[in-house]
Amino acid sequence: MKYDLITVLGPTASGKTAFAASLAAAIGSEILSADSRQVYRGMDIGTGKDLKDYEIDGKHIPYHLIDIVDAGYKYNVFEFQRDFLKVYEVLRTEEQFPVLCGGTGMYLESVLRGYRLVEVPENKKLRESLAEKSLEELTGILCGYKQLHNTTDVDTCKRAIRAIEIEEYYRTNDVNIREFPEIKSLTIGLDISRELRRERISRRLRERLEQGMVDEVRSLLSTGIAPEDLIYYGLEYKYLTMYVIGQLTYEEMVTQLEIAIHQFAKRQMTYFRGMERRGVPIHWIDTSLSVEEKVEQICKLLSVE
Fold first, then answer.
1. pLDDT tens digit sequence for 39-89
2. Is the model's pTM score more than 0.70?
3. Measured by CB atoms within 10 angstroms of the end CB, which terminus of the chain is less buried, N or C?
C-alpha cells in the first residue's frame, strides 16, 4: 500500500472521533489520538473524550494516547511525537494500518511533516524574570524572535512563558535534534460549514454543562491541582476554573467560554489551511455525509492513489 497511515483531522465539533472510529472498524485498525488535552486523566467531559464513540456495532475500537498522564502535568509536542512513534511502530510491526485522529494542529503536523524536535527543560530563572509581565508584554517578546520553533495558542501567561522558554533554549544552546521518520499519510479533513459548526459548538457546550463539567473541574481542584495549572489548559478548564474560584459569574463563564470555543475552531481551520500551504495534502470531505459515504470515499482514495 502507498500509505503508512490515515489521518483524520478537523475543527472541534466536526465529528472526528466518531468517524475515525467507524473508519478504523471498517479497515480493522486502531486509533492514535492527536488531542493535546485528552492525554490527561480525569479531564473527560471538558476535553470531549466521548469514549463511547469507540464502540462500533458492539465492537471496541482500540485507541492510544488518551489518559496517559495526570492532570496538572504539562505534556508537550516533543513527548507526543515520542509517544506516537512508540505506538505507531508497534502497530506497523503487527501490520496494522493506523488511524491518527485529532484537532491539535502542532501534534498532527509534527508527525505529518516529520518535525525534528529537541526536549526543552524548564528555565526557572527565565520564568521568574517573566513572572510579573502581562500577556501582551509576553506576546510582544515572543514576536521578537526571528523564527519560532513552536507555534501554539498563547492565551495565558504560562503558555506564553513556555513558548519564550523554548525559543531561548534554541537561541542559546547547541541542540541535539531528534530525527523522525518520514510517514506517508492519506490525510482526510472533515469540512463543516461555519453555521453548522457554531450550532454544534453551542449545543455541545450546553450538554457538557448539564453532564457535570463544573463538578469535574471542582473534583480536579479538590485533588490539589492548583487553579493556575487548570487555567493553563485553556478553554473549558480556563473559564470553568475562573468560575469555580469566583473570578467569573456563571453567566460570564458561559458567554466567554462559548466565544472562546468559536474562536478556537476558527484558529484550527486557519492552522489546517497553513498545513496545506506548507506541503501537507488534505482531502476535504463534507462532514454532513453519512458515515458510510465518508468511509466509501476514503476507500476509493486508497484504491486510486
1. 999 999 999 999 999 999 999 999 999 999 999 999 999 999 999 999 999
2. yes
3. N
Q: Which of 16, 66, 10 is nearest to 37 (CA)?
A: 66
Encode the chain in three state secondary structure. Answer: CCCCEEEEECCCCCCHHHHHHHHHHHHCCCEEEECCCCCEECCCCCCCCCHHHHEECCEECCEECCCCEEECECCCHHHHHHHHHHHHHHHHHCCCCCEEEECCHHHHHHHHCCCCCCCCCCCHHHHHHHCCCCHHHHHHHHHCCCCCCCCCCCCCHHHHHHHHHHHHHHHHCCCCCCCCCCCCEEEEEEECCHHHHHHHHHHHHHHHHHCCHHHHHHHHHHCCCCHHHHHCCCHHHHHHHHHHCCCCCHHHHHHHHHHHHHHHHHHHHHHHHHHHHCCCCCEEEECCCCHHHHHHHHHHHHHHC
Residue 153, pLDDT > 60, answer: no
Kindly report the CA angle at 221 between 217 and 224, in degrees rounded to 5? 155
Is 256 buried (19+), middle (13-18) or exposed (0-12) by CB count in 10 A? middle
Q: Which of 90, 46, 37, 89 is nearest to 67 (CA)?
A: 37
